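We modelled the chain as a single entity of 419 amino acids. Its sequence is:
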Amino acid sequence: MKRFASAWLVAVVAMVGGCRESAPVGTGPYADKVAADVPQIEHALGVKFKTPPKLQIKTRDQVRDFLVQKLHEPDTQKEIANEEATYKLLGLIPDTMHLANFFVRVLTEQIIGYYDPKTKILYVVQGAPEEYVGITIMHELIHALQDQYANLDSLERITGDDDRAAAVQAVIEGQATYEQLYIMAGGAGNIAAQLPGGWDAMREEIRESQKTQPVFSSAPMVIQESLLFPYINGADFIRRWNEHHKHPTLPFDSLPVSTEELMHDAAYFGPRQDVPSIVKLPAIPGTITENDFGEFGTRLYLFKWTNDQDRSIRASNGWDGDRYALVKTPSGNALAWVTVWDSPGDAAEFMSAIDSVQSSRLDVQPTVTGDERRYLSNTRTVDMTVRNMKGRPVVLYVDVPRGVSTNLVDWAKVQVTPR
């Protein structure tokens, strides 16, 4: 699933610029709060600020004006339009939803403060509730320190690989979330052991806290989960990262390259990192965009239509890479999607879950011929088959409007390279 939503939450608000003349933290607004936070953050992350952070105040209207202007930029419009079209084809958002307008509403609702890696300034929204400002400043100061050791601006601009972008974004946000919890818990020991209900309870608390936001609560599941992923799953990754390192250290020298690595301990911290296979699609006439869903995005699609969390997790485990193309046809959009799996059993479980997806989504059962499945409804035709490529089971999936040929792809030209 496209990770633009999760990147958007931080990347867009982190590019807002221009307000009052900046001032060093020592003489600026909230100077006492920043001065108290800096040594605690330096201790938690194991590195010191190279230069003092700066802080400015910005009105909520200034934030909204910037968001609207940003959404009118051609590249941004195209990216959101592609995400919207993909989500609608898969039935993940309503056909009537205007995604760009929704992002403005949900982000304006949530913004209290943010760090801008372009100007190197921490902004606080004027009039934000004081009880939340202090928490936000600490979180964004962690981003300021991260940025002095890794170029956050470039890390947040990964294009064409939404799975990797989601993993990187989760490390950035996850560290700020986890280390903030660590500091607030006293800066010592195992946070999970100090929390009532342990780490699982804290994950749920992060999720539940967002439900108090009316616009966020009205969002389709895929938007909610994509926005929460960097904070919940990212913080869990940092918790495990810290357990594997005796001393505080930044995680930017060896970032996970997939949501699989981020979510599974063995995939990243095991004897051999489980780096996904590279999938290259041949040129497909009418291609609108090409990207990947990743393990997490695949799981969201399965969960949307099966409403079975355990099954969605099982059926997406074993993911080893994917690539899709959103294709324009005379009768509407189509999807060509290649997924690579660790074992034949993993591929079979995924295909079985797709049976349930199409039963719920299209109200059809498959016609099975050997390794091929066809789902034929009044509106769509979906073909799915499994092949062996470079020793890996590969599932080929095509979803087209009824009456359009499913022969969109020359499968002989699909390239799969295990790593």
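As a brief sanity check on the tokenised model: Confidence is low (pLDDT under 50) at residues 1-24. The CA atoms of residues 71 and 77 lie 6 Å apart.
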